[in-house]
Specification:
The chain is of the alpha+beta class and about 250 residues long. It folds into 2 domains: about 130 residues, Roll (Pnp Oxidase, Chain A); about 80 residues, Alpha-Beta Barrel (Split barrel-like). Helix content is about 20%, strand content about 35%. The protein has 5 helices and 12 strands. The strands form 3 sheets. Strands 1, 2, 3, 4, 5, 8 and 9 form a 7-stranded mixed beta sheet that branches. It has a 3-stranded antiparallel beta sheet with strand order 10-11-12. A two-stranded antiparallel sheet has the order 6-7. A hairpin with a 2-residue loop joins strand 10 and strand 11. The longest helix is centred in the C-terminal third of the chain and has 14 residues.
Length: about 250
């Protein structure tokens, strides 16, 4: 169920589904905020490990009396790795109720009820918040979705592209149709997934995002080089000039 007026994304539209976006945020997360029993704790040592390996999600059982179990909220913030304006790309919140106690350990991780390193949670829903609005993802959708294959590598790929090949980022402007009517003062890579690259076009008084689809979706990270080069080749074949200042 979506709260915004926008239609949910789908692979057929060349974009990740909401469930895929949630899974990708979780896989790439290096920290999360956990709120339960009125206490807030920061977990800062995920190191790219899917937090669902520490917090096991279970479907709610009718008549289980779950309303008497402590509520838990896990919050994740997806921040662009490049220095764009308004760097927060999305927020993900997992809501549920504890089936076993949640005990933060000394390193910021979690201990299970028996010290086994995991906590069982009765899943309520996941909330995805983006500039397009807010959407809710159920447990079946979440379990059926797979994380984007680029998610663990995206930050390094985008920063490498910007730091070592900034001129190629500008070159990609040739593929943006139509360009904004007002001059672009800076263009930066904002995001990359198996379907394409998103650029942030910054103007003097605002910005807009432009999505450039790959010729075909990726199945694994090893295919990314060929697809990115295909975009560069297509951009070189375009003759119009970009509107960045000389």
């Amino acid at each position: 169920m979506r709260m915004s007026g926008a239609a949910p994304a789908s692979p057929a539209a060349g974009r990740p589904t909401d469930a895929e976006r949630v899974r990708s945020v979780l896989v790439a997360a290096h920290s999360m905020t956990v709120v339960t029993d009125g206490l807030c704790s920061e977990v800062r040592h995920l190191d790219g490990t899917d937090p669902m390996g520490r917090l096991h999600l279970h479907p709610a059982e009718p008549g289980s009396g779950s309303e008497h179990r402590p509520a838990i909220r896990m919050e994740f913030t997806d921040v662009a790795p490049t220095p764009v304006r308004e760097r927060v790309r999305s927020r993900v919140t997992i809501l549920g109720r504890l089936l076993t106690p949640y005990v933060p350990d000394a390193t910021g991780g979690t201990k299970g009820a028996e010290g086994g390193g995991s906590t069982c949670v009765e899943f309520v829903h996941a909330v995805l918040e983006t500039t397009d609005g807010r959407s809710y993802v159920g447990l079946e959708e979440l379990e059926a979705a797979r994380p984007d294959p680029l998610a663990p590598y995206e930050a390094g790929m985008l920063t490498h592209l910007l730091d070592e090949h900034a001129e190629l980022v500008t070159l990609l402007l040739r593929l943006v149709q139509p360009l904004p009517a007002t001059p672009i003062v800076r263009v930066l890579p904002l995001a990359m997934d198996r379907y394409g690259i998103t650029l942030r076009l910054e103007e003097r008084d605002g910005h807009r995002d432009a999505r450039l689809p790959f010729p075909s979706p990726l199945d694994d990270v090893e295919q990314s080089g060929v697809q990115i080069q295909a975009l560069f080749s297509a951009a070189r074949r375009r003759s119009h000039r970009n509107s960045l200042p000389a």
